[in-house]
Amino acid sequence: MDIRIIGGIARGRKLKSPSSFSTRPLLGRVKKSLFDILSPYIKDSYFLDLYGGVGSVGVEALSRGARKAVFVENDSDCISLIKENLAKCGFEDKAEIYQGDVLGGLAFLLSEEKFDLVFVGPPYNLNLLEKTIKIIDETKILKGKGLVIGQHHFKEVIPQKIGNLGMFRQKKYGDMRLSFFKIGGKLE
Description:
With 188 residues, this protein is an alpha/beta fold. The protein contains 4 helices and 10 strands.
């Protein structure tokens, strides 16, 4: 699969991807739509990419002006690909990578700056999105006006409210959904 940076200073750069996909990178049109929505929030933001895969979402955020991106991924092959993709785009100095299980907790991120934007792209069919958003809320790693964006299959039912975070927007793309949460948010 051909994965490219679609906007910003690294636009057009091809990212390295695994020969067999255990990850599910965002399609170009979905990534474009996501970053069109996020464009007012990206510049100088602290971006967290959970279940980072090959890093395409976090690297896209850096290309579009995020100050820093932090990646959390469990798979060592994916960690290597994130490192290669950051190097390919010249963003190694703007990124931190942690290898670990997101559901094991995010307390290790408490030493980081709080995040403006958190993208959660867990594997489908494991119902991990709600659990992950609960962990984000409990660890309070999101800034007061920050946003959490969850990628999930349309059959995965996501509550309107998870802890202090409320869903305020949902976009449909075929069998995939992007659900947007913020503190105290309500669906528009």
